[in-house]
């Protein structure tokens, strides 16, 4: 049995209680055990973060860049070991896990480069003999809460920019998938990150939530997860001067217009919908199709879905792994049952996959549903799994209306050969990420990322845009005589 320690104050520490991490491909398999820290341990982590910030904010940006570059190199050297653990605790395929591992190194390298740049602007001043500028400074100790669906790349997306700009962090990985986050933290530690700059709190959320969220030293919280939890955090912060960066739910739509390249659109939609078993915030879960091509596109789409091979992520032949846990699988199956009860038609899939040894795993068949209406829950509510629903509409305007008829606004795509329609869609889609003839997924490290409406907060992630969250602006005027 592999027992892992967690990083607090620059040291790897254990605990009296442990959390079992299970393999969703076969829940009889124990992947590892990690410490179940207590509320007192959380407070100590914030103590260390406070001291770490005092040192780190004065550390040369060039030294920060050196550490990040070294950590990225370590991740690339350890890619096979890390990817295997991502697959083991999350269920995604080795190909997906390897890509996630390498992308986490990309985040470190990108922000290593950004750390070398000055953050500020030279401004004109109406007063004579004045030179005025703005400069960006770190804000302090930030709480990072990451989800189970991207257990390595989400910590990388969050931690890299906030550490690169001189902040310190207390990092709470998902209880279901903590091993990946510990790999990322170990790379930074081994690369020379000073003690206390990054502290990893592994624990049961219910036991440590108060200590995590209510520590007075928190100046910012970055969270990826459900709207229910995100809104609870937001309400908890209502009377505190704490920044909140939330990347929440989505109900992402792809539009297929009658002039689209239908085979290409079908392949792209399947990639966006069923990659990582549909457990991506940007996964396409709704498809809006112009009626003249609805039947043909549906035929092509179902044929592509039925090519997917369900199995353990560790099997190289697998293209769709299990869901990340029993609770997640059961939730998706309940959503499917409710959709059929409301009148949806199963075009392929539709239930659990319990063939052979898969009976011990968290498998759901890749599913496409037709005869779906805008009133059905399956059309309106997020289903975090391998489920895709289809609707036919009459024309471009109806398609845009269907996309925007949602409380969410994360990602959308349109497939068309008409440049005018493409530009109109970009302008009219109420989403933070919009693609043309491409997938709703796959936004690179330097591209600002985040949604509108109930999909997130005003603070975006990635690229330089994230500096609005991780830094504060100071305006400086210098009078040089005369």
The major pleated sheet works out as: 7 strands, mixed
Into which percent range does the helicity of residues fall? Answer: 25-40%
The tally of strands reads: 19
Determine the number of helices (DSSP H or I, runs of at least 4 residues): 15
Strand order across the largest sheet:
14-15-16-13-12-17-18
Strand content: 15-25%
Question: What spatial form do the alpha-carbon principal axes imply?
Answer: globular
Mean pLDDT: 96
Give the low-confidence spans: none
- Whole-angstrom Rg: 23 Å
- CA(first)-CA(last) distance: 74 Å
Structural class: alpha/beta
What does this structure look like?
This protein has 482 residues and is an alpha/beta fold. The strands form five sheets. A seven-stranded mixed sheet has the order 14-15-16-13-12-17-18, with helices on both faces. The chain has a five-stranded parallel sheet with strand order 9-8-7-10-11, sandwiched between helices. Strands 5-6-19 form a three-stranded antiparallel sheet. The chain starts with 5 loop residues before the first strand and ends with a strand. β12, α9 and β13 form a beta-alpha-beta unit. The protein is built from 15 helices and 19 strands. It is 38% helix and 22% strand. The model has no long low-confidence stretch (mean pLDDT 96).
């Amino acid at each position: 049995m592999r027992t892992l320690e967690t990083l607090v104050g620059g040291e790897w520490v254990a605990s009296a209680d442990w959390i079992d991490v299970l393999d969703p491909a076969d829940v009889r398999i124990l992947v590892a055990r990690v410490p179940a820290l207590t509320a007192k341990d959380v407070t100590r982590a914030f103590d260390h973060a406070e001291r770490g910030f005092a040192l780190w904010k004065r550390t040369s940006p060039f030294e920060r860049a050196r550490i990040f570059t070294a950590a990225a190199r370590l991740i690339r050297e350890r890619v096979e070991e890390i990817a295997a653990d991502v697959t083991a605790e999350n269920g995604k395929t080795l190909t997906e896990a390897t890509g996630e591992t390498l992308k986490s190194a990309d985040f470190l390298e990108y922000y290593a480069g950004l750390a070398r740049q000055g953050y500020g602007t030279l401004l004109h001043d109406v007063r004579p003999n004045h030179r005025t500028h703005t400069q960006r400074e770190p804000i302090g100790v930030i709480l990072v809460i990451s989800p189970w669906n991207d257990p390595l790349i989400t910590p990388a997306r969050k931690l890299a920019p906030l550490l690169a700009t001189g902040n310190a962090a207390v990092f709470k990985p998902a209880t279901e998938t903590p091993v990946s986050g510990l790999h990322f933290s170990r790379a930074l530690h081994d690369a020379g990150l000073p003690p206390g700059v990054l502290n990893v709190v592994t624990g049961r959320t219910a036991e440590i939530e108060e200590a995590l969220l209510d520590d007075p030293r928190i100046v910012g919280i970055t969270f990826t997860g459900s709207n229910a939890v995100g809104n609870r955090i937001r309400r908890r912060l209502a009377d505190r001067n704490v920044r909140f960066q939330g990347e929440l739910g989505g109900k992402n739509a792809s539009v297929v217009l009658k002039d689209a390249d239908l085979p290409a659109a079908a392949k792209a939609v399947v990639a966006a919908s069923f990659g990582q078993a549909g457990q991506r915030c940007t996964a396409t879960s709704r498809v809006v199709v112009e009626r003249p091509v609805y039947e043909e596109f549906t035929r092509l789409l179902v044929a592509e879905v039925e090519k997917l091979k369900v199995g353990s992520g560790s099997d190289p032949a697998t293209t769709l792994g299990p869901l990340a846990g029993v609770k997640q699988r059961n939730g998706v199956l309940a959503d499917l049952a409710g959709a059929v009860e409301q009148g949806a038609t199963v075009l392929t899939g539709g239930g659990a996959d319990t063939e052979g040894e898969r009976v011990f795993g968290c498998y759901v068949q890749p599913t496409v549903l037709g005869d779906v209406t805008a009133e059905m829950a399956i059309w309106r509510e997020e289903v975090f799994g391998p489920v895709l629903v289809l609707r036919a509409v009459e024309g471009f305007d109806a398609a845009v209306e269907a996309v925007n008829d949602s409380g969410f606004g994360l990602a959308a795509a349109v497939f068309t050969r008409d440049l005018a329609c493409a530009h109109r869609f970009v302008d009219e889609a109420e989403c933070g990420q919009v693609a043309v003839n491409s997938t709703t997924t796959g936004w690179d490290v330097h591209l600002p990322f985040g949604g509108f409406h109930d999909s997130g907060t005003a603070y975006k992630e990635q690229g330089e845009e994230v500096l609005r969250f991780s830094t504060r602006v100071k305006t400086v005027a210098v009078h040089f005589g005369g």
